[in-house]
Amino acid sequence: MIAKQRPAYAEWLQSTNNISQQFLAFGGRADVVSLAGGLPAAELYPVAAIQAATERALTRHGTAALEYGAIEGFPALRQLIAARVSAETGGTFTAANVLVTTGSMQALDLIGKVLLDAGDLIVAQSPTYLGALDSWRPRGPRYHKLDWEGEDAGFTTALAQAKFGYSVPNYSNPTGVLVSQDRRAALLDKVIAAGTWLVEDDPYQSIQLDGPPGPSILSQYAARHAGPYDGPVIYLGTLSKSLVPGLRVGWVIAAPGMIQTLALAKQASDLSSSMFTHAVALELLEQNFDQEHGRSIVPHYRERRDALCDEASRRLADWFDWEVPVGGMFVWMRNRDRTIDTDELYRFAVEEKVAFVPSSVFDFTGEDRFAMRVNFTRSSPEVIREGMRRLERAIGNYCSARPQLSGLRP
Fold it and tell me: What are the structural domains, with CATH classification, of the chain?
């Protein structure tokens, strides 16, 4: 008997990539210098503080921290997050405005589930966060570039047709750009006029290397509108960068109706997030430990950023340009004359046991193949400098393998 061929995988998988799997795997290999992942420095994780918070959480909450719980999240944690956001923005937020998620990645997935049908339009930064593109890929959306500069005549029309806009104003992933307050305000005006939603993804807010970023778009809206929050901004926060990613604690701040709808989608996703990690996070946030720890790691990250940019200026400046980011985790390097395809360069880099993320995975068209994102937070300055040396060799090998580029260097 001849076995019938099993059904094929879903078609959307043909448009995805496994770059995230690769750079997470590289992070566990001692022989590879990974400048790819958006990962904090593991040696700076506050193990003792988390251990103490775990003991307090179990003593305080007992079996309630080990049960299934409310889909919206641990009630006391939601209340605390709401109080914090109220204090930070000057607005009025309650637990009804808060959904606790398994990292902010789950929030992105849920937003796609409740807002997107096949072929719907998203207005998004370009280049944009790979995780967001991956989250929404199964729904086959269309994209229009978010225009911070005010130069796109069709942007207002696109925003009015879009299900939502997606922005990362603070130290954007992958570019590291900090968007000005004026441009944030202008975008908010257009979102309100268009009658659509705006997702403000803010995972890097705590990594302020050269001064604070200023108020969020959510804060700008709260400053304009008194009373309980019911606005268009869907704000995403996380403890993955200010504390540790292993807690998998993120949150959504939004209008109560949106929170209820996201919770409805969440019940089909995980039924209940971990009440245990929520209880541990509550202990840490009640003492403002996340903010204290976030401030303590900034000098280390600033040193690492400076080491990367300094070494790159000696080794890569003939090929790439970049700006020194004032916060966040990444340096965005663009090929100076579009002669180096970073998708192809990536293979040469892996041979030299160094990893970065090529620009094509951050472009919703997949056509930008002339830049790369390099991370500076994960590794020590010494390892970063070695990574730059390996990347220089990889670029030299790439150029040598292409006669038309052999005159560039080395």
Answer: 11-45+297-405 (3.90.1150.10), 47-290 (3.40.640.10)
